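Tokens as discussed.
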């Protein structure tokens, strides 16, 4: 497993990408179990309001990611745009730290957080470029390790938050803490992001107009695959949105349990993610993703039934194993579709998450409208496995390549 870390020990750009991904993951870990609780209860948006907020923030995330991804490929100006995004993220955390309120919450989470958060996709694009100077057989492991680095903070940060909340800390404390993390992200980007035109790899402007770049993304077979890939990842999106609310309505459970549960799952995901490239499975990516979606569905189906039992903690195993497949494999799949334009490929990743989040929001709304959070998880399991199977039927192990 140490071979997975070797490129990061010798390549300063990959090392920067690893640090940035870890810090972005730390911010995500601070918010993951609590955004739904803040929206529904603290800022009184209700279940329906949270579903709308989730959909709007995801649309904003994708719009920014597409615009930024295309622009960075058009100009090969990656550093300046990364700095702008980092600064916006600092501003959003500062606003919520100084003047928390319903309007500030909506402005931050629907507009500013999505813009600043696009730095994550740009970091993956930077890593993809840096990986291009390494042997081809190492590149999948490089990207899988980077994705594992995003999950790693959930192991560290969530247990700390669990202890803090048990000690009486207010949930709004996540904003000033995240402000410090975002300042670190901005300063690292300012100090170490490679200057454009002075890298070990060639990064030429794409030469595509905005219309031509958008046409690539809207290409029928590609758009359908991105939509299907949304179902691969929607299970984790829905589970993150529901877990805090489900714990909150269960006697004997609270926010600390939700934070600990998510932390355990993320911690177990890390070794599974690192192990996947070394398995060198002789089956198509879509088959592997289908297996991962099915394993994750078991977790989603059983969670409402076992939530009030100590046996609930055993479900962290299928959640982590299934997540290792469904969270890492789509990255390589999408990057292969646009291998020559890493910024736009990052936009494809955001489009996948748009599909996942819109599906999750729809399932959340239907499930909670008809019954409750348990039904939402059951419906999510069905949609996830069904959509992943559809991708497998459409792809048959031969993904469409629209750029090289």
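Sequence:
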């Amino acid at each position: 497993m140490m071979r997975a870390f070797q490129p990061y020990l010798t390549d300063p750009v990959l090392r920067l990408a690893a640090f940035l991904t870890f810090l972005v993951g730390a911010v995500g870990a601070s918010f993951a179990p609590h955004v739904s609780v803040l929206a529904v209860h603290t800022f009184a948006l209700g279940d329906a309001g949270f579903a709308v907020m989730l959909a709007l923030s995801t649309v904003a995330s994708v719009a920014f990611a597409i615009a930024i991804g295309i622009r960075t490929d058009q100009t090969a100006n990656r550093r300046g745009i990364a700095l702008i995004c980092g600064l916006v993220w600092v501003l959003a955390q500062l606003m919520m730290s100084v003047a928390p309120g319903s309007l500030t919450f909506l402005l931050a989470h629907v507009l500013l957080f999505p813009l600043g958060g696009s730095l994550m996709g740009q970091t993956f694009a930077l890593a993809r470029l840096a990986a291009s100077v390494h042997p081809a057989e190492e590149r999948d492991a490089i990207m899988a390790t980077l994705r594992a680095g995003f999950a790693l903070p959930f192991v560290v940060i969530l247990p700390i938050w669990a202890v803090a909340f048990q000690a009486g800390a207010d949930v709004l404390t996540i904003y000033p803490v995240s402000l410090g993390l975002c300042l670190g992200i901005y300063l690292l980007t300012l100090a170490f992001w490679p200057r454009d035109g002075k890298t070990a790899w060639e990064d030429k402007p794409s030469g595509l107009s905005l219309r031509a770049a958008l046409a690539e993304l809207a290409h029928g077979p590609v758009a359908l695959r991105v939509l299907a890939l949304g179902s691969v990842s929607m299970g984790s999106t829905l589970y993150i949105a529901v877990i805090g609310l489900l714990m909150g309505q269960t006697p004997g459970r609270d926010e600390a349990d939700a934070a600990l549960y998510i932390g355990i799952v993320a911690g177990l995901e890390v070794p599974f993610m690192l192990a996947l490239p070394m398995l060198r499975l002789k089956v198509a990516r879509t088959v592997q993703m289908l297996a991962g979606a099915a394993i994750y569905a078991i977790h989603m189906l059983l969670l409402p039934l076992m939530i009030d039992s100590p046996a609930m903690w055993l479900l962290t195993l299928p959640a982590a194993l299934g997540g290792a497949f469904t969270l890492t494999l789509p990255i390589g799949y999408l990057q292969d579709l646009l291998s020559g334009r890493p910024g736009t490929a990052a936009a494809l990743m955001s489009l996948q998450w748009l599909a996942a989040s819109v599906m999750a929001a729809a399932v959340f709304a239907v499930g909670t409208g008809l019954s409750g959070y348990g039904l939402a998880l059951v419906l999510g399991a069905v949609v996830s496995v069904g959509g992943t199977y559809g991708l497998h039927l459409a792809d048959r192990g031969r993904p469409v390549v629209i750029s090289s």
